Prior knowledge:
Layout: H1 2-11, E1 13-14, H2 15-27, H3 38-57, H4 62-69, E2 75-81, H5 86-100, E3 105-111, H6 116-119, E4 132-137, E5 143-147, H7 152-165, H8 170-183, H9 186-203
Parallel strand pairs: 2-3
Antiparallel strand pairs: 1-3, 2-4, 4-5
Helix pairs in contact: 2-3, 3-5, 7-8
Amino acid sequence: MHDLISQSVEKSITYSQYRALVSKLLREGKSTGNEQSDALTKYSELNEVRMNRLEKTIQITEEVSQSLQNLQSHYIWLVISEGWCGDAAQLLPIIHKMAELSDQIDFRVVLRDENEVLMNQFLTNGGKAIPKLLILDAESLTVLSDWGPRPEGAKNLILDYKTQHGIVDETAKTELQKWYLHDKGISTQNEIIALVEKAEKQLV
């Protein structure tokens, strides 16, 4: 696992590079990932608008900010993502804003389809659901925790909808986006900081 994580970190890019890559591909009429389709490109376009908005509007709570600024250990937050993923568009701007508040966090991104071996180590119910955040000890590259692809409230919304309707359709996706809008990133912040605080106790 150590070698795999080390190789993945070496191949990773910064959040700014990730955003630039998605934008560049869109100008070429493409999306990230092995599969190319009009639908995925459309999702990527929508996500870019969404991420632009969230980067301006997302606020990190005072409690989470304080906790991030008090970190003693050095971490790498490695996120597995793709530009067409709606959940990634909602969550990466939050993770980015959190990471910016601490000199102890190096936030990196890898693409799922280019890192299949890594993705296969962090499946969700057997599926390659993204985004997936890996919280690493920056010195040993030990995986201290992983999180994703959605905060609990969003996960439960989709599970309940699928139980009722048997599928996850466009209506479900619309309801999910409403949930994210209403939550304002609070659940994501609280869930991630809880994992980081737990890791901090292990390392300090």
